[in-house]
Amino acid sequence: MLAEVTHILPVTLIRRERMLPIPGRVLVRKGQKVSATDVIAEANLNPEHLLLDIARGLGLPEDKADRYLQCKDGMQVAQGDILAGPVGWAKRVVRSPRGGRVILAGDGKVLIELDSPPFEMKAGIPGTVIELRENRSVTIETSGALIQGVWGNGQIDYGLMFVLVRSPDDTLTTDRLDVSMRGSLVIGGYCGDAEVLRAADSLPLRGLVLASMDAALVSEAARMRFPIMLIDGFGKLPMNTAAFKLLTTNERREAALNAENWDRFKGVRPEVVIPLPASGEPKTPREVGYFEAGQQVRILRAPHKGKIGTLVALHPGINRLSNGVQTKTGVVQLESGDEVVISLVNCEILE
Amino acid sequence: MPTSLVDAESLIAIDVGSVTTRAFLFDVVDGRYRFLASGAAPTTANAPFSDVSEGVRIALENLQSITGKVLLGGDERLIIPSMSDGSGVDVVAATISAGPPLRAVLVGLLEDVSLESARRLASTTYVRVVETLSLNDRRKTENRIDAILRLRPDLVLITGGTDGGASQSVLKLLESVGLANYWLPQENRFEVLYAGNQKLEDEVKATFQRIGPLHIAPNVQPELGVQQYQGAQIQLADILRTIRSRQLVGVKELDNWSGGGLLPTASSFGRVIRFLTRIYDSAKGVLGVDIGASATTLAAGFAGELIQAVYPHLGLGHGATGILHQATVSEIKRWLHLDLSDDDIRQYIYNKALYPSSLPETQEDLAIEQVMARLAMRLALRDISPGFPAHSFRYGPALLPWFEPIVATGSVLTRAPNFGQSALMLLDGLQPTGITTLVLDQNHISPALGVSAAVNPILAVQVLESNTFQNLGTIISPLGNAKPGTPVLRVRMTLDGSSETAVEVKQGSIQVLQIPQGQEAQLSFTPLQRYDIGMGGAGRGGRLRVRGGALGVIIDARGRPISLPPDPVRRRELISKWRWILGC
Q1: Range A2-43+121-275 classified under CATH 3.30.360
Q2: Do B152 and A22 touch (CB under 8 A)?
Q3: Residue A98 touches chain B, beta carbons under 8 Å
Q4: What is the pLDDT of residue B1?
Q5: What is the 3-state secondary structure (H, E, C) of B310-359?
Q6: Which parts of chain B register pLDDT below 50?
Q7: Considering only residues 44 to 63 of chain B, which have any Cβ-Cβ distance to chain A shorter than 8 Å?
Q8: Structural domains in chain B?
Q9: In this predicted model, what pLDDT tens digit does every residue of A97-134 receive, in sequence order?
Q10: Which A-chain residues 54-83 have CB contacts (< 8 A) with chain B?
């Protein structure tokens, strides 16, 4: 059975294609080294336009006004440039009120795309540019530890990791945040208090990686100016042991946090990358797999949500869960040694 | 199209859902078309596949191993047409609901008239409205352009003006749409569907055809008070197919297999419902409900007329949090038989959205998921009800019109641990009135039948007649105004060849009369307190012959709308009692 894969890997080869939503300008070259926050491409995502009624400005009918146009499609104009005219004894003209590019000129009108700051696409991970698609995308490659999350607030940053989680089921509270963490990427446990997010914002932190968070804080977290990523989900969930071990053993290392929201359709999800030199030639990890006995899996639903174990058996056919739901099942041996029967759709491969 | 079964053709219908891809095999058995088996696999529309073919291939492989019939060739492609050795299949039909909803900007003259028509048209498929433009919109043209560009729609849907009516105002609105599309790079231009004043067709073509993809459909409102959506719906289905083909590898191939007949799953579901209105009691409508991971779909057919709406924000998968935008956690909690906190419910919904294909493993999770299904139905009904024809029979304006039958599908209903749970979700969510039959499409076969009907109507008819659907039971919902506990209906049931059972139904109660599966029973009703059971008016009773379904006859006298006690303990006790009565 086809299965989703979540990566929590101490060392791997990470390759990410960062794509502009619409064509724009790629600002890096192949082979260039980039950091997570470097702007690698830009595009005019939120253009601002001005539609000027030239005919009215010149006091002429539309068809006659076009004869006096002094600009054409694609032309760059500065504030005050004459767009049309002069007309008549008064030498009436129409000037551009702001700088920009003429999109369309005709039928007595001129449409100008005003100069405005472009959308800047950040690298998201530190690494080397290995591939470019003209005007569209940049592929970056790096080696290091990779911890994928399940929810992010859309921000990107990097910093030194400051581990505040003492045990997988720890709760992050405001009193544990102080100025010594300013500019760092804090690893916390569960967050159930909006004050913690506000305190982190006021320091400010460069990023916050949490095991879990109260779902009531989603809109607050989405408003924060620093990246926030959840590793295990919503509600008071302990951090899965694989992520806990990996993050705590890499304290004080520099890490990049791309808290992009999880979009399965586009294939993007939030993640922490800790750049590390790789020995040998690591391979890029697989994105999907098929369930097989012996795999490490994470359980996605209660009553064992967030627990890690080994898939020891796959049951044939369809079976009934304790609540009566019928589904394909397997046996997972948890880290405690207990064996539990789990619906396979409630498992993901962890590697 | 076969006119007789002499030239009968085997058919495979493939449905690419947002979570599951299913393949259904139909063939002739004993001279009649039958549904033989289905195979399923996870849909592979998401990255890293971004290719539906892998899911289709695995679903076909499963179907192959279930039936023993060779369907895939050495190249792992479907063998079409069937070969002399029996391998392969003659005809393929396909539907799709995978992929994010299309982002649409609606353009119409007046908010209440043409924009309302545009909204209704958009709601017939997987569309999310991101912006509207109308004469009421005071923004300058350039601000409208910027708004459209910021939202990056997949589609702009233009309605407005009766045929021969207003033209200049429509053209003025179109200016910003045309300029926005002109600004975009060729490969990012949105599709434009024009379904307005037909007098402007040439001018619309002149404005848009050079810029980007343009689709012209018959005016959705050719004259005031007259609405026709069918032509525009066909174009909309075509646009969805075009966009999905661009987004996902494998969709084009699927469309080719089906001879260019790939349909949105919701359209195909609607087609089955419309079809059923021709078979069943013409005085009542036929209601279809599909609670999927990507959307909740309602389709109501009234004598051949179809009112349909797709609600992507009411799907129980990725969009599960959408329900929280329309209902409070307390409203969800009201329907729970378990004592769960607001936090439990909220966390559950957010986690479910993270893992749309996951299943509830605990009683608590199952209870929340089933309550979400109830709310999805209630919210969808609240939205679609004003569009039901004025002539449809109904007891009151806020109540569901009379339907016979109600066809339901969707994993939350079909995977419920028992039929009692499926039935109670439907009774609470839809709150039917009068007499109806609840029918469960356990195999999710309805869309397959709808799309197959276009290539082989005989197949659709014969499969529908072949007990493919599970009859959950006959529902009697008496309506009136008596206090709880007051006797409102006497029912006498005579089982064929067995003794007679008589019950007195009290207001506020729910009762089940068992009829063994396949057996028939004669029911006789005597309403009290001038209660209406849909047999010709208040206080009128009558007789009814019914065939035993999974649950027999359910007399739901809980009132409409169902009123739940404000005290949480009493409420949970009451809901638990209802669950016990239905064997949940």
Answers
A1: no
A2: yes
A3: no
A4: 41
A5: EEHHHCCCCCCCHHHHHCCHHHHHCCCCCCCCHHHHHHHHHHHHHCCCCC
A6: 1-6
A7: 44-50, 55, 58
A8: 5-96 (3.10.20), 102-247 (3.40.50.280), 267-581 (no CATH)
A9: 999 999 999 889 999 999 889 999 999 999 999 999 99
A10: none
